[in-house]
Amino acid sequence: MKRLLAMLTARRGRGQLHWTDWASYLHLFLGLLVMFGPVLWLVLSSFKSEAGLIEFPPRLLPYEQARASVDGYPQPLPLFRITAGDFKGRELAEVRRIGLQAQMVDPASPGDILRVPTQDRERVMRLRFALENYADLAGKFSFGTYLWNSVFITAMATLITLLINSMAAFALSKYRFSGRDAIFVTILATLMIPPTIILVPNFFIASTLGLVNSPWGVIWPGVATPTGVFLLRQYMLTIPDELIDAARMDNASEWRIYWRIVLPLSAPALAVLAIFSVMWRWNEFLWPMIVLNKSETFTLQLALNSFQGELTTSWNYLLAMTVLTLLPVTAIFALLQRYITQGIASAGVK
Amino acid sequence: MSDTVAARSGTLARLGASLIGLVFNLAERPMALAQRVLGPRRLPWVFLTPNLVVFGIFTFLPIAIDVYYSLTGGAQLLPADRPFVGAQNFRELFECESYLDPTSCRRDLFWFGIYNTAEFVVLQVGLMVVFSLMTALVLNRKILGRGFFRAVFFYPVLLSPVVVALIWKWILQRQGLLNAALDGAGLSTVNWLLDAHWAFGWTVFVSIWAHMGFYTLILLAGLQAIPRDVYEAAEMDSAGPWRVFRRITLPLLGPNLAVVVVLALIRAVQIFDEVYVLTGGGPGSATTFMVQYIFQTAFTQQVRQYGLAAAASLLLAGVLFGLTLLQLRAMRSKDR
Lengths: 350, 336
Hints:
The complex is a heterodimer of chains A (about 350) and B (about 325).
Chain A (H helix, E strand, L loop, with lengths): L1 H8 L9 H27 L4 H4 L9 E3 L1 E2 L8 E6 L8 E8 L2 E6 L2 E9 L3 E3 L1 E3 L4 H9 L2 H32 L5 H10 L9 H10 L6 H5 L6 H11 L4 H9 L4 H12 L1 H17 L2 H6 L8 H9 L6 H33 L3
Antiparallel strand pairs in A: 1-8, 2-3, 3-4, 3-7, 4-5, 5-6
Helix pairs in contact in A: 4-15, 5-9, 5-12, 6-9, 10-11, 12-15, 14-15
Chain B lengths: L1 H69 L17 H6 L14 H32 L6 H13 L2 H12 L4 H8 L11 H29 L3 H9 L4 H29 L3 H6 L11 H11 L5 H30 L1
């Protein structure tokens, strides 16, 4: 334990690498393997055919048994390389298998049936990315519907979140009025009421408002967020009041001041909140599961969950769908990593 | 080709911007009217209204209804149709021959949920804080590719719980990657998610995998705020690394560490999403936690026992309330 901590706290000696540096890099590369390896494995697996997926032990890359079309046979036949006996070294296609004997043909001369013991041959494997896992999704599983539901909920919820929280933050940062601080504290106090403890009453409220099985039932409950109000208010406090006073001199209405002056100047904070909102909404699971019961209203997350729960899970499609679900989040992360990490480090929100 | 795409997305962005502008312009007149009628003193309330209405309907009102549900029985959703039963729901949850043995309780699943959650919280938070701290300390050193490795550790945080669960389900399945590796090394394979102890262990591991990047980031920010000259002074005194960690890093990081621990506790108590997809609470009730008990009691059983679920929710709310007070205290001492 002592040595471990030494490794973690010591800093690099001048010039050469200290052993603690080696230990640090070991930690990082093990971390790389454990943190990123599983995602990579998912992506690689999603390109395997159904047959490739049930192979044990699995291969790293999507290999698949090669097949050849042979004259006189309607289906392409699986190819084998013969390892012993009369036909050693040749690549033959299997017509049928009877016990330990296989009837095979040479694709070049399909007329003659050759008999080969099954232990004298091995499969010819070829690298092939099973893109049909992705292509089939559109037609087979109403994937488009789920995608649209997720996109609609994410986009609408984010727009409304930005609007109403920035309005509240504007009022709380740019006006003096009695009750202001009490309201701010009340809004922050909602941090103590996470959605998990009001599932039952919220379901009642959603059903009273006719929001069950509607995307709006997912959107509304989460649009007012204490995190959003807090983030935006803190940022708006840094906007100088002189700007606002100058606009008032020019007879601008308060609404105009809000959306022509304060909103554009709050763009960085709005961007952070937008990123978080997109992440929250895209990934949301428990509340949508309660409020959306019909499969045509499902989001991608709900669709994934219901497919994986089926008795006969088609893993090839499930994996492809999982990859497509993590793609947007990954893209956002790749492009906006700096904002996300800074937002978290400064506000401590997620 | 890419030019046209860029041009098209540019047009689309302009279109979107002008649409938003239109909406704001449309709001201009009613808002100007409100300003004239209400006067500048009351105008801020207009800006606050949408936010407060949503909070009112979906956060504050539900708390009151939660209390009402917890005091009423029956399977009706409509509060007016529910008979008042007093503290019956709470009594039922606490009806046990021995609190140490969940199987002796009338609502045994509730108690399994409590025990599982308690065990999970202790293991998960403890291990996660240690791993996050180790990783933050390593990332705080002068190392090659620091930004890259920080991104690697953080990336899983953004993945949805369903995706996280499916990634690991695919690795842990009977013929998955892990068993293949064990098989290749000549070891016997395990049906990870169908064995109660292993399944519980994996829920702890997977939730740490998914969330530790978040805490690592907070601790890293804390480490970077420690002034360099403190370490330089320690180096002058030729203090050993262990001593530097104990006497400098740990005390100066203390407030951040407290925030991380409390945040992790709050989230761990509410564990549900990734576990539900990974194990479904099983095998048996080995990985059934509090939130899943509430969810099942209210929404997945034949007879929907909203009252019991609401009572359990309020008990959970009490725990979370206490933890949040701790959080506020930790944050205040951090800011000081």
